[in-house]
Amino acid sequence: MDRSTQAPLLLIEDNDEDVELIEWALKKLSITIPLVRCADGEEALDYLYHRNNYSDPQQSPIPALILLDLQLVAVDGLEVLQEIKQDERLRMIPVIVWTSSSDEHDIEISFKQGASSYILKPMSVQRLLAIIEMLNQYWFGVATLPEKTVLMPE
């Protein structure tokens, strides 16, 4: 697949430092998957439904994969996950919960609501690089993802 036209990785993360680390890791590993960042759950839903600042589907393509933090402002990560997985037009997008919460309840509810995976944010740079490389190899190298998810007008 041509990486320049590849659907992006959507990172839903409110912590700027975590975003910078992921961007650094992608660059360090020479991973060229387009990255889109939404800083909170409300912005993420606007992006996915092409609302407000994201009304142009050409400028806001549906992601191939979502990395979702649970602890977000406005609309929390579990609400975003629930919204995505209950929507016929979005539910095929794999959602990986990317969080610092090791709470068993968060893990269980994430999978019950349709998370594809649950990853604890790494505490070392080496571990971050290893995880990002594994995500890239699996989701963009091994797994077969739908070509495109098309949002139809409501």
TrEMBL record:
Domain Response regulatory: 8-136
Post-translational modification 4-aspartylphosphate, affected residues: D69
SMART domains: REC
UniProt entry keywords in alphabetical sequence: Phosphoprotein
Family matches, as Gene3D superfamilies: 3.40.50.2300
Residues spanning the membrane: none
PROSITE patterns per UniProt: RESPONSE_REGULATORY
GO BP term (any one): phosphorelay signal transduction system
Taxonomy, superkingdom: Bacteria
Keyword Phosphoprotein listed: yes
Keyword Hydrolase: no
Alphabetical list of SUPFAM superfamilies matching this protein: CheY-like
Protein name: Response regulator
